[in-house]
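Exercise 7. Predict the structure of Squalene cyclase C-terminal domain-containing protein from Streptomyces chattanoogensis.
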Amino acid sequence: MAHSLAVLARRAAPALATAALLGAAAAPAAYADAAAPSASPKKLPDGLYGTKDPQYDGVWRQSLALLAQHTAGVRPAASGIGWLTGQQCADGSFTAFRADPGKACDAKTMRDTNQTSAAVQALTALGGHDRAAKKAVSWLKSVQNKDGGWSSMPGSPSDANSTSVVIGALTAAGEKPASVTKGGKSPYEALSAFQLGCDAEEGERGAFAFQPKDGKLAPNVDATAAAALGALGKGFAVAPAGNGVNVPVKALTCKDGKSDAKGDPKRAAQAADAYLVAQLDRNGQHLLSAMPGAEQQPDVGNTADAVVALAAGSHGAAAQKPLKWLEKNSADWAKQNGPAAYAQLVLAAHATGTDPRSFGGTDLLAALNATGPEPAGTAAPSAAPDKDAKDNDDSGIPWWIIGVGLAFGAGIGFLISGRKKKDQL
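Solution. The predicted structure, encoded as tokens:
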């Protein structure tokens, strides 16, 4: 799921946005001349959520919207689901946006692990799309890096955000992330390499970096929130803990220069949550986002990500303070950023057992529903027979269709808020 209000990059932006944010330094030779996701359409396709340019976040925002509706007991429109499945490439991957789903993906199609992982989480939750989800997971496995992790753009160095969102997809699809290895290394081992340990300043220990920079790790709240979820093997939709469950956060500690979180993903997640709580307490129960050349501002998306991460770790009391901040300060941000933003807030509400229909005076579900096709109903449907035979066929759009990493100004959480590749405290 983030942030400074709008903008750029989430969990790892789509390949093009990633390359732009990193000065194109991370772009592998194979993608040096790759085309961007399909250009902005003159007319938005039927079934798509949101009215802004879907070139960089179409699949992302669609997936988050569908997943959020499902968690809140809303049955999404068939056209919305059909638009998403129709975006899948024949090899199982997704790019941000394909203006012409009938045209086969080729070597220049910007396949994106973040968009693909978001789609997997949505489709598995909705049910009836096992074939599409399995093909997507197979593709994700095929582009796993030798360190056990992933980047948003296959072939680039792994990053904490992308590795975490893929872990969520694997779990959603019924896989055991620890057993999905490359070069003998698991995704959890890859994540561990991004966590600041005993050689860092005490106040930074437990945080995660997006990626090493010049061989060094710098704390990044966006990556930390993402990794706190990933280390627990969880995705965007976190089931609320039962009443009374509250585990205090515990900062990373060192003994003889060794981190007590090393080799223990759950402990790593708790240490990451402790770092987030310290930042929230310092800033008035919200996280900050600093875009290049700009002063730090409250980051709504990353704050929502932190709420979900804290709830996932059963830190209920710690999650309540930033949740209350969100209830008072997120309305304008969500209205500006559309379906992915509304979805992120719905997921934060869901993780904390809060009613999304009464969130600081806003009915998040009504607002989210209004950004897309009219829902088919209010009760989550039972899993239907798998009708994905054509979902993975680039020759055309599924018969039942009625009618895509990072959005510039249109994203959410991991994505929009800013899984900016900028190191930040």
